[in-house]
Design brief:
Oligomer: single chain
Structural class: mainly alpha
Helix content: over 70%
Largest sheet: none
Radius of gyration: 22 Å
Distance between the termini: 39 Å
Strand content: under 5%
Shape: globular
Length: 437
């Protein structure tokens, strides 16, 4: 095996050029709506694996298959895949009415002056409970449009508040695919990563809420949003949220959510038994691409590591980023660069995981801190890029309701990702990491 072999990194370059290049062409040249997400991400990964398989002819193809098999068969990869599936079934089971119920309930009891703050808080809760920022934005953006149209608040700040809150939960949720990928990739407990992340995310959320309130008190108001709601639907989400925080095994927590959600959905007549099973299947199916990406990235990275690509990359990073604090910043920028290139924070984490794990060992960074950095920085970049799924879904939801708005009108009001970056840098360079008990 050849160490410090920069040529071994070629497959990553091939993937990034293909995926980013086609995304730019689809989105900005051909003007295809959601162009970045029209590309089957599995295809560029398969091509990248083909390139990796053609490298290092001294190693027989059967031996390369064995290397890839060892990478895919890692315990953390198997655990990640199973949690992906169970999380998908949970979301499919409970449906999405509860998210709207939480929003309308809070809007009904809190003065209109605080409507935008309510949107941010509800988005934080819903995304933490559901584990999906895109799903949260899909559900809450129509409510944000309603708040803007009847209250007098500008649409950009209403939509930006929903996006910011959605990224808060994407970063912290126990069933978010980013959390699952980061924790299992680094081999740490979700509760430990949550505790590490919470004290970084909380100051950012409080600062965002304070700034929203300051702007809210300078806005002329005209009305309020009123709609019916059913709070019983939020019980499964609360069970999952509380169970995760107190440290119950994630498989048990999700199973409790699935069982309670099934009982409630059937008892209230929201679905029939056959519809419930269909929804479970659809939820699991929604995780198939993410699961396949995890498998393909594991195979590709196993070959790159075998060829000495990661040794070369780590040597290069050490020349730029000095010491433990520099190493942590390097991890953040690494996953951020991956996110900018792929416009998908889960894919960015999965790709950065093996490199970051070696960096963590080299710089003496704990697994929980590494997982926290990967998840946090990926969410920071994903929350601000104008071509990310979160922004595109928000714009699409507004357009369907007859509201014309651009990403660049929303971006100045994306306070949470900016404060999260500031908080992350403070915790890297100023506040020392607490030792594990």
């Amino acid at each position: 095996m050849k160490k410090n072999n920069y040529k071994a990194l070629l497959p990553i370059g091939v993937f990034l050029v293909l995926y980013l290049g086609l995304g730019i062409v689809f989105e900005y040249v051909l003007k295809i709506p959601m162009g970045f997400y029209s590309i089957p991400i599995v295809i560029p990964f398969l091509i990248a694996i083909l390139v990796a398989s053609l490298q290092n002819p001294a190693l027989k193809f059967d031996d390369k298959l064995a290397v890839m098999g060892q990478g895919i068969g890692d315990k953390n990869i198997i655990t990640m895949i199973l949690i992906f599936m169970e999380a998908g079934i949970f979301v499919g089971t409970v449906g999405r009415d509860s998210a709207e119920s939480v929003a309308y309930f809070m809007l009904s009891i809190i003065p209109a002056r605080f409507a935008v703050a309510v949107l941010f808080i509800v988005a934080c809760f819903v995304s933490t409970a559901m584990g999906t920022s895109v799903g949260t934005i899909t559900l809450l953006c129509p409510i944000a449009v309603s708040v803007s149209s009847v209250s007098g608040f500008a649409l950009p700040i209403c939509v930006a508040s929903v996006i910011g809150g959605a990224m808060f939960g994407d970063n912290l949720s126990f069933i978010s695919d980013t959390t699952i990928a980061a924790c299992n990739g680094q081999g740490c407990q979700m509760k430990d990563k949550f505790r590490e992340n919470f004290f970084i995310a909380l100051p950012a959320a409080i600062a965002t809420l304070a700034l929203i309130l300051v702007l809210s008190f300078n806005t002329e108001l005209s009305g309020a949003v009123i709609n019916e709601y059913h709070l019983i639907n939020i019980i499964p989400y609360v069970l999952v949220l509380v169970g995760g925080i107190i440290g119950i095994n994630v498989f048990i927590v999700l199973l409790a959510g699935i069982v309670s959600g099934s009982v409630i959905m059937l008892a209230t007549g929201a679905v029939t038994g056959t519809e419930l099973l269909g929804n479970m299947g659809s939820g699991a199916s929604g995780m198939f691409e993410t699961t396949m990406v995890a498998i393909l990235v594991s195979a590709m990275c196993a070959l790159i590591r075998e060829y000495g690509g990661f040794d070369a990359l780590l040597a290069g990073i050490k020349k730029i980023f000095k010491g433990k604090k520099g190493g942590q910043l390097g991890m953040g920028l690494l996953v951020g660069a991956m996110d900018i290139a792929t416009a998908n924070n889960t894919v960015a984490i999965v790709m950065a995981n093996p490199i970051a794990k070696e960096m963590a060992e080299e710089y003496g960074v704990s697994p929980r801190k590494t997982a926290s950095i990967l998840d946090t920085f990926s969410c920071i970049f994903q929350g601000i890029i104008p071509y990310g799924a979160q922004m595109l879904v928000a714009l699409s939801a507004c357009a369907e309701l007859g509201e014309s708005i651009s990403a660049f009108e929303i971006m100045p009001f994306l306070f949470y990702p900016a404060f999260l970056l500031l908080s992350s840098l403070v915790f890297i360079f100023i506040i020392p990491e607490k030792k594990a008990k």
